[in-house]
Amino acid sequence: MSEAFAPVDVIIAKRDGRELSDAQIDWVVDAYTRGVVADEQMSALAMAILLNGMNEREIVRWTEAMIATGTRMDFSEFPAPSVDKHSTGGVGDKVTLPLVPIVAACGAIVPQLSGRGLGYFGGTLDKMESILGWRALLSNDEMKDVLHASGGVICAAGDGLAPADKKLYSLRDVTGTVEAIPLIASSIMSKKIAEGARGLVLDVKTGNGAFMSDLPRAQTLARTMVKIGNDAGVRTRALITAMDVPLGLAVGNAIEVTESLEVLAGGGPQDLVDLVLALAREMLDIAGLDADPEQAITSGRAMDHWNAMVSAQGGDPHASLPRAKHEHVVTAPTTGTLTTLQAYGVGVAAWRLGAGRARKEDAIAHGAGIWLHAKPGDHVAQGQPLMTLLADDEQRFEPALAELDGSYEVGGEPMDRLPLIIERLDENTT
Ligand code: URA
Questions:
Q1: Which among 160, 222, 289, 420 is least buried, having the fewest CB atoms inside 10 angstroms?
Q2: From the candidates 26, 93, 126, 165, which is the catalytic residue?
Q3: The CATH number, out of the four listed (3.30.2010.10, 3.90.1170.30, 3.40.50.1110, 1.10.240.10), of the domain defined by the range 326-410
């Protein structure tokens, strides 16, 4: 088959700072997925994009071209509006777990395609897989059956959604081009738009424990993604939220399920509850549903939807969760106020305890992680427990403790804290 362009011409155009045409973008994304554009050529193009950027038209077109390489899901058979949420990820971010059944209990359809964790970020599927029997891999028909049963589903994204992204993301990972905002925004949004929900709320995290630690870059990413979503006909909003301190008190897998159940039962740490409710309100507003997410919790309906969702995916919602074999308690070295608790250090320590994986094929220890007993601003007495480290292998405590060294402080200068919700971007944001 004769090709519309020569790969090198597209690379040179971007290398020299020129705009790529719609036809060039459509072709290069498709030809890369077909194997006609080689990895080394796409690497050069990705680097040129990282260095010279893309304008809004190019980013939107690139996203559409990635979506076109795969299938797009469709929930129009459901009478209820469909709405989804995506988080750029953070330490202790278990928001999806309580959020999906809460929003489903308020009358929406919530198809939540999620991933596994790599590095110190936990993955939603890893957390859910702490539940005995629960299955992440569902066919499209099974996914719809779960939605009919419970209004919500949390499952793995199939290979059919934006396959170009899968290939390109692996390449970016080994070519120093992950950081390009046009490529991050199109990567996330191609998958989210292909998922087929009519509304989307993005939780873009910033702070030392976030993928976008720098606020101006997080703002640019959020603005770019909101624009891509709305241009594609998906009502999209974003909250830029704090990830300077872990979210909630649990950092791990099974213990994050435990904490999510506390929220569904009407308790849970305040920061987590506040963020879940803020995101739920945005999702319901986008979906045009006049329902109160707090009432969905207090009435017990959100918990009913959770139980139905977990059961429909083969899980036993009442089975005990895995527990780590060993514990190590870290106590306050002195009496005073806990002034610092860095999300990054806590996240890496939990990963060293076995809660995360270093390579895609690694197994994780579902019971491993860290329970925090204090957050910045809390008064603690000397010897009082600050956190409990959990691991299946006692040898993991030493590297985890080394990672925590310097990540918390009692009685020092208070760390600069970010407000929980830093900024809100809606359909009218330009
Ligand atoms: N997550 C994604 O899905 N893609 C990126 O490029 C970065 C984070």
A1: 160
A2: 165
A3: 3.90.1170.30
Digit-coded pLDDT (tens) for 267-288: 999 999 999 999 999 999 999 9
Question: Which residue's alpha carbon is nearest to atom 6 within ligand 1?
Answer: 184
Q: Which of 199, 26, 189, 20 has the alpha carbon at shortest distance from 106?
A: 199
Best residue among 118, 169, 189, 195 to mutate for probing ligand 1's pocket (most ligand atoms within 8 Å of CB) is 169
- In tens, the pLDDT along 369-392 reads 999 999 999 999 999 999 999 999
Q: Which portions of the chain are predicted below pLDDT 50? A: none
The amino acid occupying position 350 is: A
Pick the CATH number of 7-53 from 3.40.50.1820, 1.10.630.10, 2.60.120.560, 1.20.970.10: 1.20.970.10
Residue reference for tokens 């989804």: 84
191 is catalytic: yes
Record the tokens describing residue 84, joined without a space. Answer: 């989804």
